[in-house]
Amino acid sequence: MSQTPNSNPNTPTMTTPRRLLFIASIGNKAPYRQTRHSAGHLLLDAVKPLLAQSLPNTGAFHETWYSPTYMNESGPKLVRQLESWATRQNELVTKLYGQAGHTAEGSSTRYPTTLVILHDEMEAPLGKLRVKRGGPEAFSLRGHRGLISICETLRGKGLYPARGKATLDLDILRVGVGIGRPPTREKGAVSNYVLAPVNEAEMKAYRGTAESVVQIIGEELYK
């Protein structure tokens, strides 16, 4: 969908995205960047080139970002980046496209923000997407340390669930790409499995979900 800035700054057009999207992948940094636990990063590698061609003229409304830390440390840096970007972009898109809307009392409202988290999903078969909305109040995090770190940081800052004068109107969309499970449940099997290098067939399976993820992103922009 295409869009142009409004002549009336208070009335976004039907083709103007309705929210901001911070699309963040979590995983591990080198030397574990090409492992199953970093499937979120590998998925984002495939998604990024498709965004501009599939969602033209929406660049001001979304941002892609790779977590630079190890998985269990994902929260603090991700949340700082999210908050900084969303605050800045809210001001920018309001100037370009008008306010997001108005409350019943007539006061202007900011654009809501969705944090889209791309991550590995061991509870799904290889290359299958599992999409869930919300944090631990909606679905179990199943011991995923990256998701736990993010949700704990958001809660600590009062951003999600919103508390007090939260700086963002925030929603969470979790997009997990299936990596399958190890064949055994012996001690150490899971860590060995998720930290093993991705083979060619697995990489192809992750990349094969990219178009579906872009479609999910497009639908979320106009939600």
TrEMBL record:
Record protein name field: Peptidyl-tRNA hydrolase
GO molecular function, one term: tRNA binding
Keyword Isomerase among record annotations: no
Pfam families in the record: Pept_tRNA_hydro (PF01195)
Segments passing through the bilayer: none
Record carries keyword Acetylation: no
Keywords: Hydrolase, RNA-binding, tRNA-binding
InterPro entries found in the cross-reference section: Pept_tRNA_hydro (IPR001328), Pept_tRNA_hydro_sf (IPR036416)
